[in-house]
Design goal:
Largest sheet: 8 strands, mixed
Strand content: 15-25%
CATH architecture: 3-Layer(aba) Sandwich
Distance between the termini: 29 Å
Number of helices: 10
Radius of gyration: 17 Å
Strand order of the largest sheet: 1-2-4-3-5-6-7-8
Shape: globular
Order of helices and strands: EEEHEHEHEHHHHEHEHH
CATH superfamily: Alpha/Beta hydrolase fold, catalytic domain
């Protein structure tokens, strides 16, 4: 697996498939594995780049406080190291903010941007309290995982998949040191000053039943990026699992039209 050094960080990444470059930016938690169930839908026509940013289990750094600009720089460094740019850039949750910052900082490296279930600043009191509570129960891994599951998915989805799958999902998100560092970043990130600098063709996707990042935040992100398109799905936060087919279609149609 290739590794690029950015400051004190060593960032590994995978490249799967062939074709124009598509880079997927993961959200808070384990890392790029969140995209694995969707890779086959894109790798037949894209070179899919999957970086492991600081805070994920595979990345190495000095363990210090994370910053949105540093994560955006890691994305840019991976694009340059892979030699496949400019890329189509898709980010989810924290990854949506990182991808937006990367597009603003290095427009030469980004052909188009898809920001899913993202936000722009710490002004939403619901979001601040949600992240604060999640962070505060880190000493109980079971509670941490269950709270993540409760806020990540809509009630309807949890009932559709049933108890066995819900119990499995409750063990997926664990309070690792890296994940807690990412939550700390979630509580303070602010990309409002970068939004006017995004020149790439952009699609913002919001999730109407999002109990992690309320959908109003995605609408605000869309409003801040001039000329961006907006789609809203009737799903919880982790739309890539709740509605994978619809997500792939919307994203694929947008990318193919670039």
């Amino acid at each position: 697996m290739p590794i690029v050094t950015v400051g004190t960080a060593r960032i590994p990444y995978r490249v799967l498939g062939k074709g124009p470059a598509l880079l997927l930016v993961h959200g808070t938690g384990p890392g790029s594995a969140m995209w694995d169930h969707l890779i086959d839908h894109f790798s037949d026509r894209y070179s899919v780049i999957l970086p492991e940013l600081s805070g994920s289990e595979q990345a190495e750094d000095d363990g210090g406080e994370l910053a949105i600009d540093a994560l955006a720089a890691q994305v840019g460094a991976v694009i340059e190291d892979a030699g496949l740019g400019p890329v189509q850039l898709v980010g989810f949750s924290l990854g949506a903010a990182v991808a937006t910052a990367a597009a603003a900082r290095r427009p030469d490296l980004v052909r188009s941007l898809v920001a899913t279930a993202g936000w722009t600043d710490p002004g939403d009191e619901y979001l601040r309290n949600m992240m604060t509570v999640w962070r505060s129960i880190a000493d109980s891994p079971e509670a941490f995982g269950r709270y993540a599951t409760l806020t990540a998915f809509s009630r309807g989805f949890l009932n559709r998949i049933g108890r066995e799958a819900v119990e499995f999902n409750a063990t997926f998100m664990q309070p690792t040191v890296g994940t807690l560092r990412q939550i700390d970043l979630n509580l303070r990130l602010d990309i409002r000053d970068l939004l006017p600098k995004v020149t790439a063709r952009t699609l913002v996707i919001g999730c109407a039943q999002d109990a992690t990042i309320p959908v109003e935040n995605a609408r605000q992100l869309h409003a801040g990026i001039a000329g961006s398109d907006y789609r809203e799905l009737d799903a919880g936060h982790v739309v890539v699992f709740e509605q994978p087919e619809e997500f792939v279609k919307i994203v694929g149609d947008f990318l193919d039209a670039a």
